Amino acid sequence: MALMERRGEEVTRAKLAAELGVTRTRVESVFPEERDLLEAVTGEWFAPKLAVMDEVMATDLPPRRKMYEFFVRRFQLLRENYRTDPASFMLYVEMGERYFEYAQGYIDLADHYLCELIVEAQAEGHFEGLEINMVLSLINQSIVSYIQPYLIAMIGERLTEDKLAYLIDALFDGLSATDRGAKGTKGLRAA
Amino acid sequence: MALMERRGEEVTRAKLAAELGVTRTRVESVFPEERDLLEAVTGEWFAPKLAVMDEVMATDLPPRRKMYEFFVRRFQLLRENYRTDPASFMLYVEMGERYFEYAQGYIDLADHYLCELIVEAQAEGHFEGLEINMVLSLINQSIVSYIQPYLIAMIGERLTEDKLAYLIDALFDGLSATDRGAKGTKGLRAA
């Protein structure tokens, strides 16, 4: 990853061997296939994000506070990653698009944790009448700016901890299965 | 634009002249500078989105319904654009990133309209205690998946009219200046 960050481009096993001045055989003993190298890079990228999620999940905070921490700590990590080295950050964003399959397991785990938080919140009366998977999708969509690396790079300066807290409070107090008027069944002219 | 969509790449004035079999002078009489071509392409891209926004703003729908329509109609247009020709859609997304300055005026206009809707909603008691610009930012961030072309391409199949309506209702009923517990001032351990 240091090599990729220095060169500003993806590094294959062949390039890695050349740069380190070791044989391909030596590199292949660590990464038998190209995909093993990509998996290792993906794992390194996600490790600190997983660590903060685990840390938050282990607390006994109330659901609303817990969900805020669940997102804000990852956001702060990503923002720090971006500010430290924007070019490398964008390289990882591009690689993440190209090799999305490797990230899937980590995203599934984050969704699994979020489902636990949703269940805790529903036990307290929030998100009334909505299926867990619907709430999962709605929350992920509405705070996507705070966890999607591409958006953190694009609109990062407009993202703040305070705004994220407003959004979490809005979701906890405003999200339910009841249609309160946004989606009318009538046409555009009907007031 | 037909040429760009057929070739799958950005077209300069030189390429345009060559492809049409006309002189550069002829093309330059329509587009004196390269930026005039880019401005025209940007205008064509935004024209149908502006039209639906104007249509919605002209109605006398209640604020909540109006805001939903304000977003859902653009979302439906973008989704249709993407489904019709994903490759061209991604080309315009890339050009939009590269030539963001040309889009700024259209984005400012959309924000201006949204501010009008926010003022109408605040007059009915929504978004209590929040500055207009704060509400503008929070709404744009929370429904970004439905208006940002890149996200429509990436997560389009998870975006639905129903979900957008849930989010608008959540914002109207849940967004206010009062901290209701998401952002604790205490540490991670404090329950």
Offer a quick outline of the entry.
The first copy, chain A, is built from 11 helices and no strands. The first copy, chain A, has helices at residues 2-7, 13-20, 24-30, 34-57, 63-84, 86-98, 100-123, 132-142, 144-147, 149-155, 161-174. The model of chain A has no long low-confidence stretch (mean pLDDT 94).
Question: What would you say this structure looks like, in words?
Answer:
The structure is a homodimer of 191-residue chains. Chain A folds into two domains: 1-32, no CATH class; 42-174, Tetracycline Repressor, domain 2. The first copy, chain A, is mainly α and 191 residues long. The mean pLDDT of chain A is 94. Chain A contains eleven helices and no strands. In chain A, α2 crosses α3 (24-30), α4 runs parallel beside α7 (100-123) and α7 (100-123) crosses α8 (132-142). The longest helix of chain A is centred in the N-terminal third of the chain and has 24 residues, at 34-57. Chain A is elongated. Chains A and B meet through α5, α8, α10 and α11 of A and α5, α8, α10 and α11 of B. Chains A, B: It comes from Qipengyuania soli. Chains A, B: InterPro entries: Tet_transcr_reg_TetR-rel_C_sf (IPR036271), TetR_C_27 (IPR041478). Chains A, B: Pfam families: TetR_C_27. Chains A, B: Residues 63-165 form the Tetracyclin repressor-like C-terminal domain. Chains A, B: This is Tetracyclin repressor-like C-terminal domain-containing protein.
